[in-house]
Write a structure and sequence with these properties.
This protein has about 300 residues and is an alpha/beta fold. The strands form 4 sheets. It has a 7-stranded parallel beta sheet with strand order 3-2-1-4-5-6-11, sandwiched between helices. It has a two-stranded parallel sheet with strand order 7-10. It is globular. It starts with a strand and ends with a helix.
């Protein structure tokens, strides 16, 4: 039995699909604050518990009979973490401790959890790798870094096996464009559907590593089955500018796209890129969905 916290969410529900396809039994724990039951299939090997990770007793009960945990439940909005740091820490630090401690007590063999590229802040040198300096720019990024430190401590103290997944820019079906953490691609899809121009903050020359959510689910599955310890950057290893991404989106949607430029966002990171050697070689996963193909699948799903 694999416990997936946040399993009704965007990355969570795709990971549940991958786990079910691989033959696992899955228990989802989700408070449905941003996840949706509609994201989950009806399946004989899938069960659901509605609970919050800040409820230690509920987390403890959900560990019964579990061999590995995929912990994705979190307060996911960077902006909310700046506005309400104590509330954010309640989920992202206290909730994490509830999960890792309950897992340890129940003799769970493996924890894979959502860390984030946000731990790096503005990169001093590109491409990033797992040894790059961390300098988070928000409580959210700091909370994820603290998760990584707790996981390292649990390895030292208890020999507890875990891997933190430092996701870069994940896109794909089921990402809610109105959610506070909606990435640029889901916003653009929403604009496209409304036949409205795409808003580009700045000149569009900023770069990001966009990874398709099914590749992320594949990496999560491999991480649960691997014994790799520490943290692992999760991306494609190929960054593109926003304007290049818009060009690919135009090709995927088979239409020309109108763009409206607005001033650059405060605190926006200009360039982001990661090496994926650890993901490719140690985890044995290569992101295989190209940007145009991923965007086509996303457009078709709307
Ligand atoms: C992500 C976080 C951000 C955080 C940063 C730090 C999300 C949605 N964003 O930002 O809060 O500070 O990591 O790690 O989780 N853009 C547009 N038009 C739009 C939306 C975005 O031009 O309508 C631009 C942004 O200015 C940015 C790029 O697209 O340059 C990507 O934006 P986004 O998807 O928000 O991701 P990050 O900037 O990586």
């Amino acid at each position: 039995m694999i416990l997936v916290t946040g399993g009704a969410g965007f990355i969570g529900s795709h990971s549940v699909d991958a786990l079910l396809s691989a033959g696992f039994s899955v228990r989802v724990l989700d408070n449905l604050s941003s996840g949706k039951l509609d994201n989950l299939p009806k399946h004989p090997r899938l069960s659901f518990v509605q609970a919050d990770i800040s409820d230690a007793a509920a987390v403890d009960a959900a560990m019964d009979g579990v061999e590995a945990v995929l912990h994705l439940a979190a307060q996911v909005s960077v902006q909310a973490s700046i506005e309400s740091p104590a509330f954010s820490a309640q989920s992202n630090i206290a909730g994490f401790i509830n999960v890792i401690e309950a897992a340890r007590k129940h003799g769970v063999k493996r924890l894979v959890y959502a860390s984030s590229a946000a731990v790096y802040g503005t990169p001093a040198q590109l491409p990033l790798d797992e040894t790059s300096p961390t300098r988070p720019l928000s409580p959210y990024g700091l909370e994820k870094l603290i998760n990584d430190q707790y996981a390292a401590l649990y390895r030292e103290l208890h020999g507890f096996s875990s891997l933190g997944m430092r996701y870069f820019n994940v896109y794909g079906p089921r990402q809610d464009p109105r959610s506070p953490y909606a990435g640029v691609i889901s916003r653009f899809i929403d604009r496209l559907q409304q036949q409205a121009p795409l808003t580009v903050f700045g000149d569009g020359g900023q770069t990001r590593d966009f990874i398709f959510v099914k590749d992320v689910a594949k990496a999560n599955l491999a991480a649960l089955q691997s014994s790799l310890q520490g943290v692992c950057n999760i991306g494609t290893g190929r960054s593109v500018t926003l304007l290049q991404m818009i060009d690919s989106l135009g090709q995927a949607a088979s239409r020309g796209l109108q763009v409206d430029h607005q001033p650059a966002r405060d605190g926006d990171i200009r360039e982001s890129a990661t090496q994926v050697t650890r993901m490719n070689q140690s985890l044995g996963v290569v992101a295989s969905v190209g940007l145009i193909d991923g965007l086509k699948e996303l457009v078709a799903s709307c």
